[in-house]
Amino acid sequence: MSKILVAYFSASGETARLAKTLAGVIGGDLFEIRPQTAYTAADLDWNNAKSRSSVEMNDPKSRPAMAETPRLAGYDTVFVGFPIWWYQAPRIIQTFLESADFSGKTVIPFATSGGSGMGKTVDILRAVCPAANILPGKRMSARESAEAVRAWLETLRK
Fold first, then answer.
1. What pLDDT does residue 114 have?
2. Between helices 121-128 and 91-98, what is the axis angle to 10°?
3. Distance CA 94, CA 123 (A)
4. Could you tell me which of 147, 155, 156 has the C-alpha nearest to residue 25?
5. Per DSSP, what are the bridge partners of residue 156?
C-alpha cells in the first residue's frame, strides 16, 4: 500500500481545516508548508499593492522561503493544499514543489477559496514540477464534510 502525504499551506487556518479532514479520510500524514517568516494580516492585504502577498504574486519568480523542507521518501501520492491567491496557488507552493524530488510521484492539488476557481494553477504547477504526475485537483470549501471529500476521492480512482 502506498503512503500518502497531505501537504498544505494555510495563511488563515481555512486550508488547514480542509487538509485535516482530507488526511483523516484518506489516512495520510500531514505536513504544514510554513513560510520562514509568517504572514501578518498586513502581509495578506490584497488591496495593498505593496503588501508582501501582492508583491510575491506579482513576481512569477518569487519563491518565499519555507521554514522546513519536506521529506518525501516513501510517499507515492502527495496532496498539496493551498488558498487561491490571484486565481492561482501562492508562490510558496512553487517553493515546495521545487524543494524536493517529485519524480514518479502523483501530486493532487486541492484549494480553498471564497469563490475563485483554480485558474491556471495546474498549468503553473506542472511547469515548475515536470517530474510529477500532477492531476487537475479541486477547489473546495474549508468546511467540506468528510463525505464530500470521500466522494471527490472516489472520482480520482476512475
1. 80
2. 30
3. 12
4. 147
5. none
